[in-house]
Amino acid sequence: MTTVLIADDQPLQRFGSRMLLESQDDMTVVGEAANGSEAVRLAAELHPDVVLMDIRMPGLDGIEATRRITAAGDRTRILIVTTFDLDEYAYAGLRAGASGFLVKDAQPEELLAGIRAVATGDAVVAPSLTRRLLDAYVHHLPTGPSSEALPQDDPRLASLTDREREILTVIGKGWTNTEIATRLHLAESTVKTHVGRILAKTGSRDRIQAVILAYDTKLVQTS
């Protein structure tokens, strides 16, 4: 059973999401929050598998709430639900630790599939769409001395093997596991093993965070 916390300042949106989720045999809604502060508090109390997180809410917004929830180190994963599929707030939400995002006009089956994917540690956003998002908002990446460092100097990459670094690079370029297996002449099961080790070694919560890491460390650069 996947437990879900709904965080949205619109009562009708929360009601609709609750009705949809509770129609599923494998999901249950454990709470509702009308703002970011409530979401943080309830996430700490209820330890839901997934938080459906709106971005624009009064007081503490969804981005900061996401940052606080993920920083707590709990197993809870965040699925951002936003109005625009390429808006900068969604990008900021991903950088804050969200495992993906959907638009509010997504089909019900897309939302359900997204929740199930996030709950199992997968990413909701397709790799190609993730790359387009990062390409569009790469100017939001931090600047300063650390951003000028070469990839091999970044401590997050220090424990990666050459093959793992290669795979992290192509993950950042938007390749799927199938594409990686085909182009690098590996078994797909081997690719999955490599991806799992990359996530563990770099402390990335999921594939999206690995893509962001590839950009942060300049393994991948926009044209």
TrEMBL record:
Organism: Streptomyces violaceochromogenes
Residues carrying 4-aspartylphosphate: 54
This protein's UniProt keywords: DNA-binding, Phosphoprotein, Transcription, Transcription regulation
Start and end residues of each Response regulatory domain: 3-119
Keyword DNA-binding annotated: yes
PROSITE patterns: HTH_LUXR_1, HTH_LUXR_2, RESPONSE_REGULATORY
InterPro entries xref list: CheY-like_superfamily, NreC/VraR/RcsB-like_REC, Sig_transdc_resp-reg_C-effctor, Sig_transdc_resp-reg_receiver, Tscrpt_reg_LuxR_C, WalR-like
Residue intervals of the HTH luxR-type domain: 153-218
CDD domains in the record: LuxR_C_like, REC_NarL-like
Domain of life: Bacteria
Gene3D superfamilies in alphabetical order: 3.40.50.2300
UniProt xrefs under Pfam families: GerE (PF00196), Response_reg (PF00072)
Name listed for the protein in its UniProt record: Response regulator transcription factor
